[in-house]
Design a protein that fits this description.
The protein has 83 residues and is mainly α. It is 43% helix and 10% strand. It contains two helices and two strands; from the N terminus they run ββαα. A two-stranded antiparallel sheet has the order 1-2.
Length: 83
């Protein structure tokens, strides 16, 4: 079966999914939604501990505000602080 829609004198034949494909789409969407909600609930209850690198605070500073030791640490971490 197909549904035809007339647009500007042309007919467009829409795609009709078979019953098995519809069941597959429905079940996989429900499974994906359930899995996503479970993962979100888990991480809401058990947030991960994130350890930031030592140079993290250097990212917000201008090169003019850094001490020479901070510039060396930033350069060693791969952050460009040159003028």
């Amino acid at each position: 079966l197909s549904i035809q829609l007339a647009l500007g004198g042309k007919s467009i034949q829409s795609l009709m999914a078979k019953a098995g494909l519809t069941i597959y789409w429905f079940t996989t969407n429900i499974f994906t939604l359930t899995q996503s909600l479970a993962i979100r609930a888990y991480y809401a209850a058990n947030p991960p501990e994130i350890k930031l690198p030592e140079y993290w605070d250097q990212l917000d500073k201008n090169a003019d505000e850094m001490t020479p030791d901070e510039k060396r640490a930033a350069t060693a971490a791969g952050i460009n602080v040159a003028p």
